[in-house]
Amino acid sequence: MNAKIPDHPVITLFEQISRIPRESGNEKAVSDWIMNWASEKGLQVSQDGIWNLIIKKTASPGYEDHPPVLLQAHIDMVCEKDQDSDHDFSKDPILLDYDGEWISSADGTTLGADNGVGVAAAMAILEDNSLPHPPLEVVFTVQEETTFAGAETVDISGCDAMQMINLDHADERELIVGSCGGTGVEFTMPLEREGEIPEGCRAWTLRLSGLKGGHSGEDIHRGRGNAISLLLRLLEMAELPVTQISGGTNRLAIPREAEAVVLTEDREKLVNIVSAARAMFRKEYSGAAPDLDISIAEHGISGAEADTDAGITRPLTAASFRKLAAALRLYPNGIAQMNGNLEGLVESSDNIGIIETGTDFLKLTSEVRGAYQSTVEDITKTIDVLADLLGAEVSYFNGYVPWEFAADSKLRPLATGTYRELFGGTMKELALHAGLECGFFAEKKPGIDLISIGPDCQSFHSPRERVRAESIEHFYELLKAVLGKL
Length: 486
Description:
CATH class of the largest domain: Alpha Beta
Strand content: 25-35%
Shape: elongated
Helix content: 25-40%
Oligomer: single chain
Number of strands: 23
CATH architecture of the largest domain: 3-Layer(aba) Sandwich
Largest sheet: 9 strands, antiparallel
Distance between the termini: 44 Å
């Protein structure tokens, strides 16, 4: 039996936010709801054309002359779900489940703690008139998970704060002092198909599933495997005509599943190949993906490209499959290099998040990340060279800038010292291999003092996403205490 969800102001507000669809790019409803909420509280609130919000609250008594503080979080979320979930992110609420320690989604979907808990924490600060704090400027942005258009375009010229607390981290014992920049990439390469379908062949769908996936930045070093890369290895083992390949749903998520359609009249041989591949992959990923599986199912295809009698699509030519395999093997995927200044931190990486084959093309969509703009560009140059070699076209989109570490900060020692006072532990300072919006705010306000904090969360961008309830309480206590000292 599930435990009762804790009665806490941040959790209560998060539960209310979770009832409103807020997939990245579809934030109007939740933005309107928060704007109405702020107006009812008597707060100054403004909303721009893409649904960013700026909310202001005057200082509590005795803090009128203190410098203002900016709190920032994003209201959108990544929408991923299990294969058997019928959740509709465009209209269905996300219901919360609680096991006595962790809060998760009750319906096999992403939870949206990234970054709904940060939004709820800022709202809880705004609605509690008993808290001591300086003047507050709260910025809620949109499209963080897709384009960063919210942080890039939000007009904060009317905000005076030169100290900012971002609320978008996933470990209460870590203080984020920098984050990577990056860009989305679309790589499209021409393919050719055979003129005829091989005589006597039947079509089979090979589906690789059971990987853990995760955040393409924060989890890239955990060795969880990329379903697209493993599928290629399976197809190379099979050496059978291939008609379709697809996998992944979001460039920001490490692919958990991928599938291909192959042609053969020898089912027994196919079963043996799949069995060998399954055993090999399970051995390689025994700890990271114990549920890894490969299934076989007879396939029926419909559409303009299908042979209506046999239900089979013409396969790729052998040359095109070799070209496809070369693209996947040479395309940057995974860790590019580790950070030489901060031990254990990934400095730069790329994640192939989506693969798609059409009638005459292969399309890969990936996310490049780097602590420095120069290392982001180093990876994109590799992609450009590969595109030239294979006759592909490349486009880059939704780029964002790094938030580089600044040596002089008053917020950092204040936050770490306050955490030690409250909980008796050490708060580790580190840069994050994920894109935060802080870089845009640092560009808009040169010299602004920035930190990022958040509660314990796991498995962002996957249906296994969860947040520790007690850590939400700690995160909120820390935020309140820091504001009271500013």
